[in-house]
Structure formats: structure tokens, C-alpha cells
Amino acid sequence: MTAKPQKKRHSTLTDIAVAAGVTPMTVSRVVNENGYVSAATRERVTRALVELNYRRNGLARGLKRQRTETMGPVLGDIANPFAAELARAVREVATAKGYNVFICVSEHSVKEDIDAFDALADHRVDGLIVATRANKPGNDHLAEMIESGVPVVAIGRDFRHPHADLVSADHLRGGYEATRHLIELGHERIGFIGVTLSSGVGLRRFQGYLDVSRGESPRSYCSGVSRARTRCRERSTSSTAS
Predict the structure, then answer these.
(1) Which structural domains are found in the chain, ordered by start?
(2) Hey, which of 60, 64, 131, 205 has its CA 20 to 30 A from 225?
(3) Tell me: the pLDDT tens digits for 75-88?
């Protein structure tokens, strides 16, 4: 039976200082590129860093600076073209600003949603970008994290908090325009699939569908959701009665 290789201990600033014959403070100056260090000393320290395969402790450095220069997008399904494009765009912008991106995928599971939030917060990311389906346990957990100081941006998620930013489409207008487009193509019997009384996004799309079907202009978000819920109940009651 082959013995497992021993896990090597990571080199520390002290190890590098001993190897280079300098103080840990001098090594820190070379690693962080701040403060004066002579060319000869810098070369000696750099050689020791390479020989001992030194890697910076990003988490410890982040705790000291109160930022880790990382952000964590949480996606529902990476196979979804929208999610893949979103991840690419986040990485592109974040990298240009000097940030690393750690992506979590929850597969639309409430538990995995919350686990992802906690894992990213435990690693002290500088902010969460949440692009998963809304659910009450997840929304409640996000609210608690925001109150504890974690910056959060929600994308396409039915979640509102006074200290969180929300990026969302105009679903009311979308339902309206989609239905109007079909009518303009000559279609008359147009059905709507995908609305529930608990889905704010679906209700807004449904209200847009109803508005254009009755020849009305799109209404505001609040009145749209309220009227759509009423319509859903009316149709549900009518279907049950028949």
C-alpha cells in the first residue's frame, strides 16, 4: 500500500526572512511592493520567495485590509445561457477592477442557495451577486446577511431590501409587448402559461398579457401585481365551478 505524501507546510514571511537574511518586515515590503528596499536586498528576497515557493495568504491579508478583492455570484443553473452570459460579464468587469470571482451554482435548491450565501460570506467576499429564484427562506437569510454588513446585489430575483441593489427587467412591459407582437402577427387565441399567485415576476408578465388583450396600456408595478392576483383567483374559481 502506497503511503500518502506528506502535506507540505506553506512557507511564511519568517521562513523567507531567515533564508534571505533579512527581517519579516523587509519581506513584507517586497511582497506588497511598498516601502523602500535596496535593489540587492530585493533580489535576495525575491530569490528566496521563488526557492521556497511562497504564496500569499489571501484570507489573512484580506482580514487585515478589511477587504479581499473577491466577489461571489450565485447562479441557479450554469447551463442556462443567461446565467453563463451573466457570469462572463461579471468576471470581465470584476477582473478589470482587480477583483477575483468565485461562482456558486445552487441548481435552484433553497438549501444550496443558503449554503452558497454562507460559504461566500465565510470566505469574506466583498459582495454577493444573487441571480437565483426567489424563495422565502433564502430572502430572509439574505436580509439577515445585509443587516450584518454584507453587500448584496440581486439580479432578476424578486427580493427587495432598502440596503440592497436590484437589477431587473420590466416584466409588466415584457408581457405586454410579447402579447401585442403575437396579435400583430394575426393570432387571436393566445394562452398564457407560467403564472402562480406566489410569483411576482409571473404575475407582472400576466398583467401585461391581460392589459394588451383588453386593449389597455401597461400599468404600474404595484397595481399590476394586485390586479393580476385578482384575475388569477377569478379564473381559478371559474375553472373550479365549471
Answers:
(1) 13-56 (1.10.260.40), 66-167 (3.40.50.2300), 171-241 (no CATH)
(2) 131
(3) 999 888 999 999 99
CA distance readout (Å), 149 to 121, 124, 128: 10, 11, 11
Tell me the three cell numbers of residue 153.
446585489
Give the position of cell 407560467.
194
For 41, residues 6+ apart whose C-beta sits below 8 A from its C-beta are: 20, 22, 26, 30
Per-residue pLDDT of 96-139, as tens digits, reads 998 999 999 999 899 999 999 999 988 888 999 999 988 899 99
Give φ, ψ of 74 to 5 degrees.
-115, 115
Which helix or strand (DSSP H or E) is residue 166 part of?
strand 165-167
Distant-in-sequence, close-in-space partners of 208: CB < 8 Å, separation ≥ 6: 171, 172, 173, 174, 175, 176, 177, 178, 179, 218, 224
* Whole-number Cα distances in Å, 10 to 61, 122, 171: 15, 22, 52
pTM recorded for the entire structure = 0.62
> In whole angstroms, what is the distance from residue 45 CA to residue 115 CA?
41
Q: For residue 230, what pLDDT is reported?
A: 46
CA 186 to chain centre: 41
